[in-house]
Design a protein that fits this description.
Strand content: over 45%
Helix content: 10-25%
Distance between the termini: 77 Å
Strand order of the largest sheet: 9-10-11-12-13-14-15-16
Number of helices: 5
Largest sheet: 8 strands, antiparallel, barrel
Radius of gyration: 33 Å
Oligomer: single chain
Order of helices and strands: HEEHHEHEEEEEEHEEEEEEE
Length: 374
């Protein structure tokens, strides 16, 4: 009798454990299933093509199948954004977030979803070698579904239109989805061609900078840098202080110009990383402070090291130092009876620091007018 009771208990335990096991397997399968939405590199608009149209229907079917669990809080829709097509990590993260929100907003607006039913994360990396797959959706059960809702800043903008990219020879008008259907199989397409223009800010390879350390010393500086590519750039720097007070015999006059070639390494994007450079330069000076004065010319050459990082979209900061050799020939003079009396001519050679930099730069860009059919 005891054997039968033990057998019955084992059967009951097995029946109770089986659904849980099946549910666990289902959860694992759901967590591993992904739906990909493709975006054009360096473009944020949610385009409609054969792949994205099929992904929308696939995602709608998956959501409908698990809608009850999602509404109860037992499951969530997991969305991830992946992007590497922009030049900086910050730009890639912004783009991934924007694109993820576009995918979410479409289903929120057109398929009755809610913001709190999503969990989003974004990455400045590729997904399995694909750079602009960008948005990945899956249904996830378990602890992640019970987590707190996404932060307020993740709330998407109004649903974007889908713009076709796989048109035949005759351009096909853009399409947008009709009002939310009850089932994904009843989801028709409505053609709504509309001309649209917009402005887009495009950065150029040019930057304008000013060395704040020289500016504080009343020696205003101006630099122009041109980026040949991500590894090489050329920089032209000029400084000038042309102050004088004749009655007190005070002269602070100095002007230099220095071209420089730079090699960038360990870059995180254009205008973000470390560099080494080689520079040459020359200048003129007249220095006097109420007594003996020095007037002459100089030539110098050396190597430099620096680091630059972006501040927002349009500005950057640069810190650096330059060390090298300088040769100068100058005339020494004394002010006497309203005249400047020549004393002697000298030449001096110097090796050591020649530049010290803490500069702010403006990344020159321009607004480009674009248009198309939405």
């Amino acid at each position: 009798m005891r054997k039968y009771r033990l057998f019955i208990w084992l059967v009951l335990i097995g029946l109770l454990a089986c659904p849980a096991k099946l549910k666990s397997q289902e959860n694992e399968a759901m967590a591993d299933s992904v739906i990909l939405f493709r975006f054009v590199p360096q473009r944020l608009m949610f385009y409609s093509n054969a792949h994205n149209d099929a992904s929308i229907l696939q995602a709608a079917t998956l959501i409908e199948r698990h809608r009850d669990a999602i509404a109860k809080g037992d499951a969530i829709v997991r969305v991830q954004g992946f992007c590497t097509s922009f030049r900086s990590e910050a730009a890639n993260l912004r783009s991934a977030k924007n694109r993820s929100n576009q995918v979410k907003s479409w289903f929120i607006t057109h398929y009755g979803m809610k913001e709190e039913w999503y969990r989003t994360s974004n990455h400045a990396t590729s997904y399995k070698g694909m750079d602009d797959i960008v948005a990945i959706m899956a249904i996830v059960y378990g602890k992640e579904a019970a987590a707190q809702p996404a932060p307020a800043e993740e709330k998407p903008a109004p649903a974007p239109p889908l713009v076709r990219t796989d048109a035949p020879a005759q351009p096909m008008p853009a399409v947008s989805w009709a009002e939310t259907p009850q089932t994904p199989d009843a989801m028709p397409l409505v053609r709504q061609p509309k001309a649209h223009t917009w402005r887009e800010y495009k950065t150029t390879p040019w930057s304008v900078k000013s060395n704040l350390l020289y500016d504080v010393l009343l020696m205003p500086s101006l630099e122009f840098e041109y980026y040949i590519n991500r590894r090489w750039s050329v920089n032209l720097e000029g400084n000038m202080a042309w102050w004088h007070n004749d009655p007190k015999h005070r002269y602070y006059q100095l002007a230099t110009i220095s071209p420089e070639g730079r090699f960038w390494f360990k870059t995180k994007g254009l205008r973000h990383g470390h560099y080494i450079g080689a520079f040459v330069g020359g200048g003129w000076y007249d220095l006097e402070n109420g007594g003996r004065g020095y007037q002459g010319e100089m030539e110098y050459a050396g190597i430099s090291y620096g680091y630059m990082f972006p501040i927002g979209k349009h500005f950057s900061m640069e810190a650096g130092i330059g060390i090298g050799y300088m040769n100068t020939k100058y005339d020494e003079y004394l002010p006497m009876d309203g005249h400047y009396v020549f004393q002697q001519a000298k030449r001096m050679n110097y090796f050591g620091p020649l530049k010290l930099k803490l500069a702010v730069g403006w990344n020159i860009g321009r607004w480009v007018k674009k248009g198309g059919t939405l």
